[in-house]
Structures
1.
Amino acid sequence: MDVKDLSAWKARLVSKSSKQHFQLDLHSGNLILKDKIDQEALCGQKDLCVLLTEMVLENPVQLHRIEVQIEDINDNFPQFAKSQILLDISEHIPTNTRFPLETAHGSDRRNSVQIYALSPNEHFTLDVQSDSDGSKYAELVLKKPLDCELNPQLSLILAAADGGIPKRTGTAEIIIEVLDTNDNVPQFVQSVYRVKVMENSPLDMLVTKVEASDRDIGSNAHITYSFSQVQENVLKSFMLNKNTGELSLGGTIDYEEVGIYEMNIRATDRGGLSAYCKVIVEVEDENDNAPEVTITSINSPLLEDSPLHTVVVSWIGTLETMAELPAPLRQTCPLC
């Protein structure tokens, strides 16, 4: 057939598919590509990708079969199903524990994923395995124990490369939430708290505040406070806020009754771990007691020529403190 006969014979192309990918140049006889062809979109994962079309001639009618084989090139990047891979891992998980990861898929059949790589880090390595069909998959392997208090979250980059030339690479971010376990004991800011309080101070007055902290995270760091093996007079005179650690007066305190209160306070976290501190409360005295004087009279003759400073009356006074003795007596009383 001569090219000049194509027009006379009304040559045209009829595609075997719904879309016509080629057109016929009647002047040159060339088969021309109309649109960009994507082997993966047309044939998926088939080994052989062939487009069928027919050239129809009229006068006389003839059909000529045309087969165009589409060859794959490495034009697609490997892709993960999700751009982020989320993992929740307890900080007490043993080393050498494995965590299977999402696989990446390359659209180019002849250039499937061949290599997985992990960004440098101190806790995990990557172990690449092969399935029975030859496809590759990766597992995350823990090599160094995790610590939620030091690194509550880790971010790693997982890369997948295919076997094409040049290689195409796809990536996904691995976000690891390190779950906390109760492995830290609460710590008080001070082991001993010393305070002074005036006797007869008003009820609900703040005496002191004990404070403890916990290096754990979340609910394991929540601390409650309580008395530990204290005497009954402490429970009658003081109140402890279990959430804030504030120690306040719950009853009257009297220096003459108790001069010093000692109490142990316990700080306990949600996991049951406890620490202890001591609070020493010194009660300061106030001049709130009048002297009690007992006078004893006796019948004793006094001679008219008795010398000066002869004892006429003797008295006994009971004082709680020296401060309660009147100033003139403090200066002259020989027994004081």
2.
Amino acid sequence: MAESVTHDVVSLFSTTHRDFLISNNDHQVKIDSLKGKKVGIYFSSSWCGPCRKFTPFLEEVYNELARKGDFEVIFVSADEDDESFKAYFSKMPWLAIPFSDSDTRNHLDELFDVKGIPHLVLLDESGKVVTDCGTEVIREYGVEGYPFSSERIQELNDQEDEAKRNQTLTSILTSPTRDFVISSDGKKILVSDLEGKTIALYFSLTLDKACSDFTPQLVEVYAKLKAEGKDFEVVAVPLDDNDDDDDEEEEESIKVGLKSFHWLSLPFKDQSCEKLARYFELSDLPTLVVIGPDGKTLHSNVVEFIEEHGIAAYPFTPEKIAELNEIQKAKDASQTFESILVYGDQVLSLEKMEKGKGKDDAKEEKKLEDGWVCDDEVCFKA
């Protein structure tokens, strides 16, 4: 659905037999009440993991903007039964197309060319499509993106570019409502107290195997550097899912881990966690971004250098990284084809590789049988 297309919101959501939407308590709200409001059309489903992860972000923005009285969200369910719809919708503060009206739900799905969920289309007060990439806008800009116009987004992008040029530790780690990080014993540590130190921002997921494998190595390096009196701190940036059903368990797991790791952390579910992930353009986990004493980024990810060189990677400066790269090049050059394929007494044969490939293909086909394929951010129609 191209931007600049304009819709009449009354005809968009109503039928000849229905002139209302419903709230989560089955209260009927006249569609006429949407006139003059900005509207978000939210395509989502209870079975969709990425949707459950995104919904709390949208809810936070919605609740913040509700005070203005000129923004509404309409939920268009992709659930398979009314019971699932009601259970999922009961936690949402906005309105919905009745689940029984499958014709309207399907029509909206086709009209806005929904290929995957979560999917959010944003309309301005005249019904004009501002963007059909609303999930990305909400994730990246939150309530600051309001009214979600291209002019506002450009303004925020310009501000971010300016912030990167004048980056400081305070500009990265603080927010309008928080000027501290959390210590391993739960105390609030002012970000200003960390200025002048080398800071490693550790982006990870609690239950991710790659993160679990790397964390002990980082713990060891951190302990050695602290023992040597280095001005070095690790600040964890927890990126665990925002699925409400798992919040308490995840938060407790993070707290337990923090006590054993002895480093600092941003608060669980703090908005800055996702914002920082986008700011540093994360493409992999775990990621360890290093900020120098001057508040500038020294390196976007030193995980591999710590895995390979341990404490020798410190202080993660361009000069040190260049030195380590030369060491790695020399090591790679000395490898033979046989040393790559032979691991101990075990030879990696082409036959084993083919078998592994077959297993991966079978797993993919099984996913496709259900009609949807999901990754961390979205579920696509197969």
3.
Amino acid sequence: MNIDAYRYKPPKPNYLPHDVEVDEPVVEELLVPLDRANERENAIFYNKMKRAAQEYNIVRPKGYTVSYHANPEMEKHHFGQTHPMKPWRLTLTKSLVTSYGMPFAMDNYNTRPATYEELNSFHASDYLDYLGTAPPEDQPRDIDNPDKAGEVKFNLGGSDCPLFHGLFDYCSMSAGTSVDAARKICNGQSDIAIAWGGGLHHAKRSEASGFCYINDIVLGILQLLRCYPRVLYIDIDVHHGDGVEEAFFSTDRVMTVSFHKYHPDSFFPGTGGLDDNGPKSEHNPGAHHAINVPLNDGITDEQYSWLFESIIGKINEHFRPSAIALQCGADSLAGDRLGRFNLQVQGHGACVEYCKKLGIPMIIFGGGGYTPRNVARAWAHETSIAIGCQNKIPEEIPQHTPWREHFIHDTLFPTLEQILGEPRANRNTPKRLQEIVQHVHEQLRFVGHAPSVQSRKIPPDLGGIRDDVEDRLKEENEEKDENLRRTREEGLGAPGEF
């Protein structure tokens, strides 16, 4: 088997063989990348990260394994100067996670991009072909004006889903992190797998939507369904997880639960009402397996946590999932560019902590989040929850954190006053929240208890596990990584070492 076929080779699309020829790049790659640390700077930072892990007693959790899946090449992409989506947020997240020394408590994987065949397990071929070959456009089209937009295919090219440089590579790298996380769960290498580069929940089978081009969550859940009879999908993004709900609309093996702002006339995507509970026909297996929790502006940590535990706890009793896919979109945080909630990092992280206590194999995805410094805070905090060190790390952001000045406030948990100045008006009354909980509990009465839910069909494999290829790639990387070899010899990150 040719290993080179699975390596990232910009700027050609990585899904070859294909029937469309790709021109050679016009601009050659620079020999010395700009704004990148040299070996000496990396060594200095590594030692600081190592000392932080020792000082905060960051060790591998006992009894379970956490894995971290990322592709650093994603961070280099750019949707456009005015576009809310900033892959830079992954860089800030990494800076916090590493500065606290958290990588020593996890298995860390530099994931490969998903192949064309893997993407094709959910997405249509004609859509992927266009996504991989459409030329980039420097300015988004006005797709609401047919006279100016020209021919628009698959909802691509507008201000929401622009055709930017390196689009297909970005999408396949994002999907690769989620697919790899799902496979590590399936083969028992991990109990909690983190993929902050994924979580793009709006993409449909043949259509881009809401900044999402490839639905990596669906690809990950399809992989989970090969090994687990029932998967619970939970979405705490401020937007409705419509793409995932639609993908599993007619199955009783996946229950989708979305907590989101709901205002159909003015807030994207306008779906996910309280009464939208799956197919209306009781003969459809998916009936009552889509749970939607519509919220108004200004919900607080206390309200959100109570609502989350009241609903997820009851779902766990009835549906009894064997795996969880948790989408942690950070646009539900206070101060987000698009969101309008009063949620803080602590309240957002409480959802992760509650799901972890259930003791079920879990993938934690990224998602929305358009104020990068707040996204990085939330995802770093939730990484610490996954490895069980949330009470060990200090609230003050370490002095050696790269790009520390971009966080503005030097704490991991800024107050609402620091974030907003004045909290937004809370339009969620206790009576309304109680009605939501009662409605969800009523819907669950119609859901068959877990023993009656059967695995009728195993989804197609996503191109095979390719253990042999991944093992060989891992060996090559380890041979090059002298720091990793020395760390293992020292036993850093092992319980009881400090």
